[in-house]
Amino acid sequence: VSLEAVQEAIQQRAVLYDKDGDAHYDTISAFIKSVRGSDPDAALYWLAKMVEAGEDPRFIMRRLLILAAEDVGLADPHALVVVSAAAQAFEWVGLPEGVYHLAEATLYLATAPKSNSTKAYFAARDAVRQNPNPDDVPPHLKDPSRDGKALGHGQGYRYPHRAAGHFVRQQYLPDALQGARFYRPSDQGYEREIAQRLAQWWGTRGQAPEEPSTPSSASQPTEPED
Question: Against a cut of 0.85, is the pTM above it?
Answer without folding.
Answer: no
